[in-house]
Design a protein that fits this description.
Mean pLDDT: 95
CATH topology of the largest domain: FAD/NAD(P)-binding domain
CATH architecture of the largest domain: 3-Layer(bba) Sandwich
Order of helices and strands: EHEEEEEEHEEEEEEHEEHHHHHH
Low-confidence stretches: none
Shape: globular
CATH superfamily of the largest domain: FAD/NAD(P)-binding domain
Strand order of the largest sheet: 6-5-11-12-13-10-14
Radius of gyration: 21 Å
Structural class: alpha/beta
Number of helices: 9
Strand content: 25-35%
Largest sheet: 7 strands, mixed
Number of domains: 3
Bound molecules: flavin-adenine dinucleotide
């Protein structure tokens, strides 16, 4: 069976980002790479959004960038503006196409459907696939989004709505999210922070239909695209070893308080490629122990007081836009951290610290 220097298990966001970073830095000129990916075809399946706090390789896959966003509670709305860090959405279809066409020129790169088609004994393995069953009773961010198109211009495409808590919470945490790509086209998502045991929260079609009709006042529209997902808000338990490095969500790249992963994946890919020649000695990458600690406390509060979360999120965004964006994108300094922490209700968070 054929052997390769490197194997990437899972040709999704993290696997392909890493392969692309290796290729553009000419690290595959005299090394071989196998990508293990079972999917039959690549097509748009997700929309990756984030605040652009550093440059990335996929500017040409951006559907839209915004400088303004709103947060809504059931009582009021606040608008934030950030010229320094635009919010961007990436079309996964364009991302897959760009990377796969680049990789197709290098004969040292091969795709396989299953790992047992090759000999993996001596390779460095980058794994983006979760091992074993994931616990449904833990906390997840689960959601469904639809991209709708209307005959008339309805949306203000200069401003996105990051969180709208003006909706049924059903004893968990629930909000809608609206990304207006054009004046007549928007991705609208219903998002829950809860375990996955409660099936009654998953009537997403109905939730979206009611929200679009009653909150947005839109009666006629067509649906162009649907995406659905569940992002684990807990870290994987399996660990790296010197020949096996976990990447992507399976490599702990998700920020647990937000679900944001895309830009962390880009940072991790660059880190791996910069250190590829001493990869066996590389320490496990993390985007900041302080965020891991603060997110843990935040999620404890969320689990014990879901009813308080709309106000906690709303108040958190009273900090200056740059501060909150840097905090949520793991780029804040200690003064900015203190500023955000000062917006939180003290007693509940102190109690969560000791529980
Ligand atoms: C619908 C959706 C929307 C999201 N939106 C955002 C967002 O807006 N912003 C953000 O930052 N994050 C977002 N995320 C979270 C995160 O960025 C994505 O989940 C991202 O795709 C994670 O990359 P990954 O490589 O870890 O996983 P994936 O992209 O899922 O890649 C894993 C790959 O492994 C393959 N695979 C599965 N089983 C096997 C196997 N046994 N062997 C080999 N390969 C296998 C899969 O086919 C897949 O291609 C979203 C997630 C989802 C599901």
């Amino acid at each position: 069976m054929k052997e390769f220097d490197y194997i990437i298990i899972g040709g999704g966001c993290a696997g392909l980002s890493l392969a692309y970073e290796l290729e553009i830095n000419r690290k595959l000129k005299d090394k071989t790479l196998a990508i293990i990916e079972p999917r039959e075809e690549y097509k748009r399946d997700k929309t990756w959004s984030f605040w652009k706090v550093f440059d990335h390789n996929f500017e040409d896959c951006v559907i839209k960038s915004w400088n303004n966003f709103t947060i809504n509670s059931s009582e009021s709305s606040q608008e934030l503006t950030s010229k320094n860090f635009p919010y961007q959405s990436i079309d996964s279809g364009k991302f897959y196409e760009k990377i796969n066409s680049k990789l197709s020129f290098n004969q040292n790169i091969s795709f396989f459907k299953r790992l047992n088609e090759i000999n993996s004994k001596n390779s460095i393995i980058f794994n983006s696939v979760f091992k074993g069953e994931q616990n449904k009773s833990e906390l997840w961010q689960h959601f469904q989004g639809i991209e709708i198109e209307t005959a008339k211009d309805i949306f203000d495409d200069e401003i996105l709505n990051l969180m709208d808590f003006n909706c049924d919470q059903r004893n968990d945490v629930h909000f809608f999210y609206t990304l207006p790509f054009k004046k007549n086209k928007a991705l609208i998502e219903t998002t829950w922070l809860s375990d996955l045991d409660n099936q009654s929260l998953m009537d997403y079609d109905l939730q979206l239909e009611n929200y679009i009709k009653n909150n947005l006042g839109i009666k006629n529209y067509k649906i162009n695209f649907t995406e659905k997902g569940a992002i684990p808000l807990f870290y994987p338990t399996f660990k790296n070893n010197d020949k096996n490095i976990n990447i992507g969500s399976a490599g702990g790249m998700t920020r647990l308080s937000t679900g944001y992963t895309f830009l962390n994946i880009q940072e991790h890919s660059k880190h791996i490629v910069n250190n590829i020649d001493e990869i066996e000695k590389l320490k496990t990458f993390n985007f900041g122990k302080k965020y891991q600690f603060l997110d843990k406390v935040f999620l404890k509060v969320l689990e014990s007081h879901p009813e308080k979360m709309p106000k906690i999120f709303f108040d958190m965004f009273k900090a200056s836009p740059n501060t909150i964006i840097k905090f949520l994108s793991n780029k804040s300094n200690i003064l900015e951290d203190i500023n955000i922490i000062s917006k939180m209700p003290k007693l509940i968070f102190i109690k969560a610290l000791f529980n």
